[in-house]
């Protein structure tokens, strides 16, 4: 005689009980997103007529210095605590030696000062890498086709000191040279900037998702070769964790995983393993995919919030995202 399976008369666990009404769903929401979790990356141009929408990033504009000031005021109004400045520099002034990277009057430094003028409370974050001022589009100095590590680190230190003098609150080394964090930290300690925060682009992968950014800063078409000798192979989880451990040991205060969405596993792992403020960069290509599909009518605008909640669920304390003002506005409306 075959025994009959016993089918209980009701499901043992009814998870739908807590999904029944908006109030119950609100009560049982595990993670939240607020404007204070956002860092807003902005592009600032020094080229006359360089301002305006970036074709591959619909809805994102290159700003003049005045535009950057207005963005800073918008950030303040919306409760976005930080703006990250990316320079769109004059192509005629890019050189092999990248000397403009440490010119106190370069567009990045002028933007830092302009923002601080109107919004001194805003945390201004910088990008430390030579690409905006490099004739060949690389983040480091190039000799005979090789990216020079130690010479680049020296240049980055000079660059960072001018950013600190301009009033930056957070240094964001995105270059991926070895030893840069230790060198930056030592230079800050030695030059009256002991309290300078460093948010290291620690787990930065060699990604195709940076394409629209390179359009935005005028680096596309310029890059000779690729960045695979310094950015991490997208297949390498353990190597990315070593980068984070190393940068923290060298003096980083916060770390970043970049890009974001294809690397959520690392966001969670970095947060759990190191227990330090962890940020994800939802990069230009991620923005372009989402915003582009929304504009085509292929996705609803709700996916913007969903994508950012995903970072919070993965353990990120904050997110660098071009959606920052759009999302902060939405959050303010919701109250
Ligand atoms: C380079 C830098 C890049 C980004 C931030 N800093 C591009 C690169 O590494 O080629 C990309 C950001 C984005 O795609 O939104 N210093």
UniProtKB/TrEMBL annotation:
Top enzyme category: lyase
Organism: Paracoccus cavernae
The encoding gene: hemB
Pathway(s) where this gene product acts: Porphyrin-containing compound metabolism; protoporphyrin-IX biosynthesis; coproporphyrinogen-III from 5-aminolevulinate: step 1/4
The protein's name in its UniProt record: Delta-aminolevulinic acid dehydratase
GO MF annotation: an example: porphobilinogen synthase activity
Keywords: Heme biosynthesis, Lyase, Porphyrin biosynthesis
Record-stated family: Belongs to the ALAD family.
Catalysed reactions, semicolon-separated: 2 5-aminolevulinate = porphobilinogen + 2 H2O + H(+)
Keyword Lyase (UniProt): yes
Keyword Lyase annotated: yes
Pfam families linked: ALAD
PROSITE patterns named in the record: D_ALA_DEHYDRATASE
Assembly information from the UniProt record: Homooctamer.
EC number, as in UniProt: 4.2.1.24
Classification via PANTHER family: DELTA-AMINOLEVULINIC ACID DEHYDRATASE
InterPro entries: ALAD, ALAD_AS, Aldolase_TIM
NCBIfam families listed in its UniProt record: PRK09283.1 (NF006762)
């Amino acid at each position: 005689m075959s025994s009959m399976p016993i089918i209980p008369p009701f499901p043992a666990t009814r998870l739908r009980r807590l999904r029944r009404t908006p109030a119950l769903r609100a009560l049982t929401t595990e993670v939240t997103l607020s404007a204070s979790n956002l860092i807003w990356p902005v592009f600032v141009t020094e080229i006359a007529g360089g301002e305006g929408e970036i074709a591959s990033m619909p809805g994102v504009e290159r700003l003049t210095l005045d535009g950057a000031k207005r963005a800073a005021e918008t950030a303040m109004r919306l409760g976005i605590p930080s703006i990250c400045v990316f320079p769109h520099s004059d192509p005629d002034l890019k050189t092999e030696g990248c000397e403009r990277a440490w010119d106190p009057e370069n567009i990045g430094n002028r933007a830092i000062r302009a923002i601080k003028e109107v919004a001194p409370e805003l945390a201004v974050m910088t990008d430390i890498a030579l690409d905006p001022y490099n004739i060949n589009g690389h983040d480091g100095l190039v000799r005979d086709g090789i990216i020079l590590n130690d010479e680049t680190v020296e240049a980055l230190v000079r660059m960072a000191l001018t950013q600190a003098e301009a009033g930056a609150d957070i240094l964001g080394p995105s270059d991926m040279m070895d030893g840069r964090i230790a060198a930056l930290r030592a230079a800050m300690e030695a030059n009256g900037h002991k309290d300078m925060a460093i948010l290291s682009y620690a787990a930065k992968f060699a990604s195709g998702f940076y394409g629209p950014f390179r359009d935005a800063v005028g680096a596309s078409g310029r890059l000779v070769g690729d960045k695979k000798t310094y950015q991490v192979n997208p297949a390498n989880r353990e190597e990315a964790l070593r980068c984070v451990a190393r940068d923290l040991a060298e003096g980083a205060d916060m770390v970043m995983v970049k890009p974001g969405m294809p690397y959520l596993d690392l966001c969670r792992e970095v947060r759990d393993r190191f227990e330090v403020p962890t940020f994800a960069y939802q990069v230009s290509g991620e923005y372009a995919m989402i915003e582009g599909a929304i504009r085509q009518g292929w996705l609803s605008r709700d996916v913007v919030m969903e994508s950012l909640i995903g970072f919070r669920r993965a353990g990120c304390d904050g997110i660098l995202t071009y959606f920052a003002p759009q999302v902060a506005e939405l959050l303010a409306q919701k109250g």
